[in-house]
Design brief:
Blueprint (H helix, E strand, L loop, with lengths): L1 H4 L8 E9 L8 E3 L4 E10 L5 E4 L3 E2 L8 H14 L8 E3 L7 H9 L3 E3 L9
Parallel strand pairs: 1-6, 6-7
Antiparallel strand pairs: 1-3, 2-3, 3-4, 3-5
């Protein structure tokens, strides 16, 4: 679907974020998230500049932070885009300060992605 509609996407900048979703009926990737007081699943999503979802990484247990296995999961997202003939090199990626680890910034640089991520002063990299 992405390959067929790539011309309609607005990839001048892309947005990366995670989502914790309650998993009321269980499942394979479920963990207790104290902040939500529920068992949840978390997933990373990438959207274009208009909010159109582009790719989603494999779900992870919700007891993990968004940065758990971040480079590997981001690799899945990049592979999905490349399979749809959407180049990742040159993307301008926006994310919140939860995505500030140095290793992720280095992964973006390795892929020639401009990471627009505010510094997280509380994080001990």
């Amino acid at each position: 679907m992405l390959r067929e509609n790539g011309a309609h996407l607005e990839c001048s900048s892309v947005q990366l974020d995670g989502s914790h979703t309650p998993a009321k009926n269980g499942g394979e990737a479920v963990g207790y998230q104290g902040r939500k007081k529920a068992r949840t699943t978390t997933a990373l999503f990438l959207a274009d500049n208009r909010g159109q979802p582009l790719a989603c990484a494999s779900p992870q247990a919700g007891n993990h932070h968004d940065t758990h296995l971040l480079n590997a999961l981001f690799g899945e997202i990049c592979a999905s885009l490349e399979a749809a003939n959407i180049p990742v090199a040159g993307l301008f990626l926006n994310a919140d300060k939860a995505f500030d680890p140095t290793a992720f910034r280095q992964e973006c640089a390795r892929r020639d992605i401009e990471a627009n991520i505010p510094r997280n002063r509380r994080a001990a990299d």
